[in-house]
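Z., the sequence and structure:
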Amino acid sequence: MLTLIECQKKSAEIKAINSEIKKEEANAAIIEAEEQPVNSLVDEIDKLHKLKIDGVISDEEFVSFKEKLITNS
């Protein structure tokens, strides 16, 4: 049986892994946008915005990812 401290550590590990997965999804959105027409740029920025609103990525990460999308389109 896990102790409270062990459960807290596992919970923190899971949260960190989930955060990394969401950041990879944001990176994948950038790569996908690079391969699609410009009119999908708005859709990709909207996806990033939703990740920001959900707290998955920070404001700074949103701006960085958005700039990459715009630069690469």
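The mean pLDDT is 85. Residues 38-73 form one domain.

Let me know what you think.
H.
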